[in-house]
Amino acid sequence: MNNKNSEKPHLNLDSIKTYSGEEKAWDMLSVMKPEDVCKNAFVSFDASRGLYTVKSFGTDFHVFHEQRKVTAISPNGIKLLSIREYFFELSIVWYLVSAKNVPLSGKWIKPEDVKGGQIFFMGTHKLPLSELADKYGHDTKGFIMKADELGGSVCSYADACVILYPFPKVPVNLLLWLEDDEFPPRVDLVIDSTCDVHLPTDVIWSVTSTTALLMF
Asked: What Rg value do the Cα atoms of the chain yield, rounded?
């Protein structure tokens, strides 16, 4: 098996640079009641500073709806914004305006099973799960440690299983199956079946791809 640990995959983002509309998302957030946003999205609002605090991958992000900007203080947060600033910032705003007062189902599904989502999980949009399997196919400890750095939790399934939270109501479950004599290593990614209640389908793609890429 080729060792691809040093190769960080890159996904084709060019085709969705206008996904869901940046101005539209900010416009929607500007007229929403903060108490409704907080209840629906499990976030907090500081009226004196005019900002929402959203916890993502164990890090607090500040969303200033009047200035239309997203900031972070922690090194991990700054790194995430610098790596995927446009897409991650837009994902945060769309989460705030789209999240509903609906509980998680506890039923896990593949991202491509979301209605209308097949196009975002094929070809150049395919998630880099085989690359993750190559990286962690013999390293459950490293897999769990990396997830821990991202605020993840461990669950009892597969050879190693972690749950990451890009957003409070959008858990992403990564399951690692180690290589053995019969099968190559494998990583599966599943999301709660309510995901498309809280995010547009194209934003689900951005969130799941970001989750996978942050594990490298």
From this structure: 17
**Residue 2: band (very low, low, confident or very high) from pLDDT cuts 50, 70, 90:** very low
What is the C-alpha to C-alpha distance for residues 101 and 183, in angstroms, rounded to an integer? 42
Determine which helix (DSSP H) or strand (DSSP E) holds 213, and give its type and residue range. helix 201-214
Q: How many residues does the chain have?
A: 216
Q: Are strands 108-109 and 170-177 parallel, antiparallel or unpaired?
A: unpaired
In the numeric block, the tokens 């993840």 are attached to 152
pLDDT above 80 for 16? no
Q: Residue 149, CB half-sphere, CA atoms under 13 Å: how many?
A: 14
Q: Mean pLDDT throughout 62-69?
A: 96
Q: What is the pLDDT of residues 81-134, one digit of tens each?
A: 887 656 888 899 999 999 999 999 999 999 999 988 888 888 888 999 999 999
Give the distance, in angstroms, between the CA of residue 181 and the centroid of all CA atoms in the same chain.
33
Work out the number of other CB atoms within 10 angstroms of the CB of residue 63: 24
Name which of 117, 68, 125 is nearest 96 in CA terms.
68
Beta-bridged to residue 172, according to DSSP, are 164, 191
- Using alpha carbons, list the distances in angstroms from residue 172 to 23, 31, 108, 163, 177: 27, 30, 9, 6, 16
